[in-house]
Amino acid sequence: MEAYVKSNIQNGIGTIEFFHPQSNSMPSSQLRNLVEEINNLSKNDEVKVIILKSGGEKAFCAGASFDELISIKDFETGKTFFSGFANVINAMRKSPKLIIARIHGKAVGGGVGIACAADYTFATENASVKLSELAVGIGPFVIGPVVEKKIGTSSFAQLAINATEFYSAEWAQEKSMYQDVYETPEEMDAEINLLAEKLAQSSQDAMTKLKEVFWKGTDDWDQLLTERAAVSGQLVLSEFTVNAINQFKKK
């Protein structure tokens, strides 16, 4: 199946779904399309609440596309690529609509960033998390601010430093990355639908004001995440990172 990002609107609920055949990894084109869909639904007066999900039954999102990472040969290309994740986080942050994330499977790197950038996150017991960036010589610089905001500096440091370890959905819930965790996707979807339907009947003005409260103190993130993208864009050019990504691709 080909990669896609698509959305639909039903009864005031806007749903965005993304898919990539390589474990829902994110090349630049996928990141741009995701930003576009978030912005479109954010501006649509028919939409009261947004659900963000991915396709397939395995990983929720494997983070950056290793195929694209290994092809980066200069700083500007690297900075532009990592700015794609910055743009997704900022689109979610600046959306006037509350965003519910549906995490049905493993979330790695940028996938963790998406889970943390949502205003309310549902997950299944299979939705373990990992920040693998340090293991390939990069570091989770772009998604760092939103992960740290959601789970705190100590837990962010634990994920960032122990970069080869998956942490369970239970751990993620304990750290407030996930608000609710369910045994099966079916149970999770039933609860997501219940909450989304309630929110679709709520005051849009009140929800928008509430979201402003949630994201207070992040007005500098357009600049901050761009600066962080530059750090990653430089590091991805290192011999260490090139070798490490090639080793990962062989597994």
TrEMBL record:
Sorted alphabetically, which keywords does the UniProt record give? Isomerase
Give the InterPro entries listed for this entry: ClpP/crotonase-like_dom_sf, Enoyl-CoA_hydra/iso, Enoyl-CoA_Hydratase/Isomerase
**What Pfam families does the entry give?**
ECH_1
UniProt keyword annotation of Isomerase present: yes
Q: Extract the Gene3D superfamilies matched here.
A: 2-enoyl-CoA Hydratase, Chain A, domain 1 (3.90.226.10)
* MF (Gene Ontology): isomerase activity
Q: Which residues form a coiled coil?
A: none
Name the family: Belongs to the enoyl-CoA hydratase/isomerase family.
Q: What is the name attached to this protein's record?
A: Enoyl-CoA hydratase/isomerase family protein
Species whose genome carries this gene? Epilithonimonas vandammei
